Amino acid sequence: MIRKKTYRPSMSNDNMKIIEDLVINEEFCILATSNGIEPWTSLMTFFADHAAMKFYFLSHKNSQKSKNIKRNPHVAIHIDRREHNLSLTIAGVYSPIKKQQTAEAIKHLIPIKHPELKDFIEDDNVELIRIQGQNAQLMHGFSDKFEIKLKNS
């Protein structure tokens, strides 16, 4: 019999540690966008500045998600760890990167977590998208819910 490690969030500090752990260690998320009428979801790799709750994604400039984000900057990011019955939803807003130097620095960090994206980053049709997390909801199972307004939002 395989025993799964279970998380039992009880205090806000414990919950924040779980949120940080999910953001730092999970490789994939679902990015939910909308054009204002219809929702759209995309399975994405991501890189995050967990202290500032800024999330970075790479996308083709003409993709549906990129078009949606420019029309409607409000998004949701869903990260889960199903084997532990954990689910994290972050509401955030698109925050364009204005300094090329900042974008280049982030582009150099992404392959550390996702080496498979090294060539994709260099494609001229690919853009770096930054989302500033504003609120988070951590679910443990179906009824244990923790919500928090994120700092720096």
Q: With helices defined by DSSP (H or I, 4 residues minimum), what is the helix count?
A: 4
Sequence stretches where pLDDT stays below 50 over 5 or more residues? 1-9
H and E string: HEEEEHEEHHEE
> Could you give me the name of the CATH homologous superfamily?
Electron Transport, Fmn-binding Protein, Chain A
State the total count of DSSP E strands.
8
> First CA to last CA: what distance?
44 Å
Report the top-level CATH class.
Answer: Mainly Beta
Q: How many whole angstroms does the radius of gyration measure? A: 16 Å
Q: How much beta, percentage-wise?
A: 35-45%
CATH topology: Pnp Oxidase, Chain A
Q: What is the general shape?
A: globular
Domain count: 1
CATH architecture call:
Roll
Largest sheet: 8 strands, antiparallel
Global structural class: alpha+beta
The whole-number mean of residue pLDDT values reads 90
- Helical proportion, percent range: 25-40%
Explain this structure.
With 153 residues, this protein is α+β, with helices and mostly antiparallel strands. The protein has a single domain (12-149), classed as Pnp Oxidase, Chain A (Roll), CATH 2.30.110. Helices cover 26% and strands 41% of the residues. The protein has four helices and eight strands, in the order H-E-E-E-E-H-E-E-H-H-E-E. Strands 1, 2, 3, 4, 5, 6, 7 and 8 form an eight-stranded antiparallel β-sheet that branches. The termini are far apart. 21% of the residues are buried.
